[in-house]
Design a protein that fits this description.
This protein has about 325 residues and is an alpha+beta fold. The protein contains 13 helices and 13 strands. A hairpin with a 4-residue loop joins strand 11 and strand 12.
């Protein structure tokens, strides 16, 4: 079930960059590093140019590889580091320290760039991903619920479900139901551990139909504000096509749409179109949604999706009543 091919390719790419044999390795061990070098772990450095060329998740992965190579024994990466290794997108600042879990008898002493967690851990709660070991998706979810924000934990759950139980718009409800039963059983066995209560609550919101991390955290804010919404609502479009609205507000003539800045700046998402062309396409789509359904369309981005107060202010600007204001 666990899909690791894409992350395996990323690990190989970063690893090869760090240890290239035909040129100067990017990752070096040094007591006196070259000027401008970036320390990724004690005694391990990369060039500033190489570091700045990496995405945040690959910077985190680079730090993990340095920690792995420096370790004298097998480590188990956990929390945000496990999410990176599992290839599961999350709402979090991945430029911070890497995480490992040492078991109930391990040390919790912190060090720069590495956070150690001393929590009970069984062999069944770990997986091997391209030579590095980390906590399983189920255990990682529990750890994120215990140590990170609900936004981080829910985005992990949604992303994992989307990657493993959805193809296109189709959701494998049978396998999803089996997984939900499995993780519910795991949470029952872990009752009393920090994070289990939050995990149980968040799993009622987790859904593979959400298309992005932004949709995940937006769904959480809307839930906090007391809204009931439907996800990915189909609307018949022109020429036989179908549009999907991110959110339909129950009881209100209103669609909600999440638009991160990356939608208009990422060449892979633009697929050869200019940002202006994408804006024009979205404008025509909005016109169709509003004209064919009599529903207003409201757009928001990460500033609103990450903050219930900002979401409240955005909706109130369009005269939308807030069932449970955040004050």
């Amino acid at each position: 079930m666990l899909e690791t091919m894409h992350i395996s390719e990323r690990i190989s790419q970063v690893w090869n960059e760090l240890t290239r044999q035909n040129s100067r390795p990017q990752l070096t061990v040094a007591r006196h590093p070259a000027p401008g070098s970036i320390r990724v772990h004690y005694g391990w450095y990369v060039s500033r140019e190489f570091w700045q060329s990496l995405r945040p998740e690959d910077q985190h992965l680079t730090r993990m590889i340095a920690i792995h190579r420096a370790a004298k024994s097998q480590l188990v990466f956990s929390h945000l580091s496990a999410a990176v290794l599992l290839g599961i997108p999350v709402h979090a600042d991945l430029r911070k320290a890497a995480h490992i879990t040492t078991g109930s008898k391990g040390s919790c002493r912190p060090s720069k760039g590495l956070i150690r967690h001393a929590r009970p851990l069984t062999a069944l709660e770990t997986v091997n991903v391209h030579g590095l070991r980390c906590t399983s998706p189920e255990r990682t979810l529990l750890d994120l619920c215990a140590a990170e924000t609900p936004e981080t934990a829910l985005s992990f759950a949604d992303s994992y479900m989307r990657a493993n139980f959805r193809v296109g718009r189709a959701v494998d409800e049978e396998q999803l139901h089996i997984w939900r039963d499995h993780i519910a059983h795991s949470l029952t066995l872990a009752r009393g551990m920090r994070g289990t209560r939050i995990a149980t609550q968040l799993l009622t919101l987790a859904d593979p139909r959400k298309d992005s991390v932004l949709e995940s955290i937006s769904h959480l804010q809307l839930h906090r504000l007391g809204f009931e919404v439907e996800l990915q609502v189909p609307v018949a479009g022109p020429h036989g096509r179908t549009y999907y609205a991110d959110f339909k507000f129950r009881g209100l003539p209103l669609f909600g749409e999440c638009d991160g800045k990356v939608k208009y700046t990422n060449p892979a998402l633009l697929q050869g179109r200019s940002a202006g062309e994408q804006v024009y396409r979205d404008k025509r789509r909005d016109d169709w949604l509003q004209g064919s359904t009599d529903n207003k369309v409201i757009h928001w981005g990460y500033p609103e999706g990450a903050n219930p107060l900002a979401m409240t202010q955005r909706l109130q600007a369009f005269n939308v009543p807030i069932p449970q204001p955040p004050w």
